[in-house]
Amino acid sequence: MKKILVLLSFIVGTAIAANAQKAQTVTIKTPTVQCESCKTRIENMLAREEGVAKAVVNYKNKTTKVTFWTERTNIENVKTAIANAGYDADDVTANPEAYKKLPQCCKKPEDGGGMKK
Predict the structure, then answer these.
(1) What are the start-end ranges of the H helices in 20-112?
(2) Segments forming the whole domain that contains residue 51
(3) What is the Cα–Cα distance from 39 to 45, expressed in whole angstroms?
(4) DSSP conformation class of 86
(5) Inter-CA distances, 44 with 2, 85, 97, 109, 110, Å
(6) Count of domains in the chain?
(7) What's the distance, Cα to Cα, between the start and end of the chain in Å?
């Protein structure tokens, strides 16, 4: 009986390992993030994006660190999701309609936005 259980657990473990996906972590420059509200908005948007496991925005360094499953999405889809939230992501510019809908504090300083000093 023990041999059957050991064999069964080996088969199940092998099947799980064969179906395992590869995770990739990348850091994306997000130069237009301004504040905690931007951070929350991007992280929430990426949490709903298929294949994204984790996203952390650092608005002081203007970067977004994203971990995603390579078999479910790719870096370009992640950048597009950020752009669709209204923010620049590396070489992908923000969607103009989404940018217009951002609160004033989340807009670029040249558009009258940004953190007040």
Answers:
(1) 36-47, 75-84, 96-101
(2) 21-104
(3) 10
(4) T
(5) 47, 10, 19, 23, 26
(6) 1
(7) 72
Q: How many CB atoms lie within 10 A of CB 6?
A: 10
Q: In this structure, what is the dihedral angle of CA atoms 64, 68, 70, 75, given to the nearest 10 degrees?
A: -20
Residues 14/52, Cβ–Cβ less than 8 Å: no
CATH number for the domain spanning 67: value is 3.30.70.100
**For the sheet containing 52-58, what is the strand order?**
23-29, 63-69, 52-58
8, two tokens? 């069964």
Let me know if residue 32 belongs to a domain. Answer: yes
pLDDT tens column, 28-62: 999 999 999 999 999 999 999 999 999 999 999 99
CA gap 93, 1 in Å, rounded: 61
In a domain, 11, yes or no: no
* Cβ pair 68, 89 in contact under 8 A: no
What are 112's two structure tokens?
Answer: 């009258």
> What is the pTM for the complete model shown?
0.79
